[in-house]
Amino acid sequence: MGLFDFFKSEFIEVIDWVEQDKNVVLWKFPDKDANIKYGAQLTVRESQLALFVDEGQFGDIYEPGRHKLITDNMPIMTTLKSWKYGFDSPFKADVYYISTRTFTGLKWGTPNPIILRDPQFKQVRVKAFGTYFIKIKDPKKFFTEFAGTAQTLSVYEIEDRLRDIVSPKFAEALSEAGVSVLDMVSNYSELGDKIAPMLQADLDVFGIELTKFQITSTSLPKEVEAFYDKMTNMNMVENMNKFQQFQQANAIEKAAENPGGGANEGIGLGIGMTMAQQMMQQQQRMQQEQDREAQKNAPKAPEPKESRESIFSALKELGSLKEMGILTQEEFDEKKKDLLARL
Question: How far is residue 336's CA from residue 27's CA, in Å, rounded to a whole number?
């Protein structure tokens, strides 16, 4: 091989990216410090963009298709390089491929429980988990503000770096929503729709588009879940006063076993007391309704029977009233018949 052939082999004539790993978001074409041949073929596949960078300055961006790298197809690079008409020499540039497809199943979660005000339980600690989907919408901004000059960047690295952004936004939206923890499951979609635009405002800075955000699960402290289970079975409790006393004694006993428990135990105790009070009030209302219903349906007590002596006395008085002309014969007969019927 001659000297000319050696230098010719050092020029890059074909540039493309066949994705071996679907989790790669950004990939730098390995030029091995070689020059790109003028007229080289650049292939950009579907769901890809190719970005040229010249000494830290953005050059041309190429969408899917096959592109011949000549001055007519490289207006920005031509300007950056100050190429004159008829330029046909090899040139140096960094080529980055960016995947533009939607990356699904990125996970988020609250590393620590969120203490929030609950309309029903006053205060409660909640942990939440979910997934979200993203895609690159502004390759220049993504390259400058997020990716930098990395050789490759995976979606897992993006997921890890966004975790500290997603969790606080969830906590903020959850506090503003004012949804009780008991109703949270039925409001997953509503909460997700509320959080998405808040989170998108932070992702715009990095040229990333949030295409979907969803909550998959929420969890409560064990003591709260235990009280909730008791609340759902409260109809099985007969004496709510004794139940409340038991709950108070149980909470005091736990507090005595852990004197340094601090605020978390206080929150759990407060939730337990609130639940017990709510169950007692509901049971009292149910008992009052049952009492009213029983009174309404109770059979009437029979009227006491009159004695024979009182009936005969009344007949004598009726006879006297008839003789005195106060009662007519018809009235006397009617009253007499009524009194005799009582014997």
Answer: 116
Neighbouring C-beta atoms of residue 5, cutoff 10 Å: 8
What torsion, rounded to 10 degrees, do the Cα atoms 27, 31, 36, 41 define?
-50
- How far, in Å, CA of 229 to CA of 238, rounded? 16
* Residue 285 exposed, middle or buried by CB count within 10 Å (0-12, 13-18, 19+): exposed
Which residues have CB under 8 Å from 263's CB, separation 6+?
A: none
* Rounded Cα distance, 189 and 161, in Å: 25
Say whether pTM exceeds 0.70.
no
Here the tokens at position 179 are 């949804």
What six digits make up the tokens of 190? 């509503």
- CA distances 25 to 45, 62, 142, 299, Å, are 14, 16, 11, 81
As a residue count, the chain comes to 343
Helices (H), 134-187: 139-142, 155-177
- Nearest Cα residue to 30 out of 17, 39, 20, 43: 17
**Position 53, amino acid:** V
Q: How many CA atoms lie within 13 A of 289 on its CB side?
A: 6
**pLDDT tens digits for range 209-249:** 999 999 888 887 776 666 666 666 655 555 556 566 666 66
Q: Check if the beta carbon of residue 85 is closer than 8 Å to that of residue 103.
A: no
Q: What is the pLDDT of residues 90-120, one digit of tens each?
A: 999 999 999 999 999 999 988 888 877 777 7
